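Task 17 of the worksheet. Students: predict the tertiary structure of the chain below and write it out as structure tokens. Keep your answer in the requested format; marks are given for formatting as well as content.
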Amino acid sequence: MTAELGPGSTVDDDVRLGYGDGDPPVVGADARIRAGSTIYADVVIGDGFTTGHDVLVRERTTVGDDVLVGTGTVVDGRTDVGSSVSLQSRVYVPAETTIGDGVFVGPGAVLTNDPYPVRTDAPLSGPTLRDGASVGANATVLPDVTVGEGAFVAAGAVVTDDVPAETLAVGVPAVRRELPPSLRGDNDLP
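Model answer:
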């Protein structure tokens, strides 16, 4: 299967574009896809997409412009990722997740979508990370949780309930606190 690549895009050797059944993936201009990465069929990616090595983007996923997907990160299918997003190395994004614009997800963070793994047949519902949210390294966000606009999830936190806009979530399980002035404002993403 041949992918549709925008002008200025580069793809390393050992990259699989269009894995599986469906329409060839569409990748915008000035993309950089590194070795070991697999982009499934039925994926649409905007301009300025950059991956680390060994990235997986599954079917029926949409990705906006200027998105970084770090080494070893998995974005499962049926996921929407906004523009100006940074998913650092070893992040797991499950199916049925929505990530807004200007979101940062730190290394090793895990988002989940199954409320009762292998125990019941519950519908999958990934989290929603609203515009400008930040999720720290090794944090876990449980199914169907919304992290509000400009909210900040501290490193290592386990988020079991919604985090309102402009709020800090810290601890295990995470508790909500006022967002300190030093953490207010937009994410400074390159």
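Marker's comment: Residues 65 and 115 are 31 Å apart (CA to CA). The mean pLDDT is 96.
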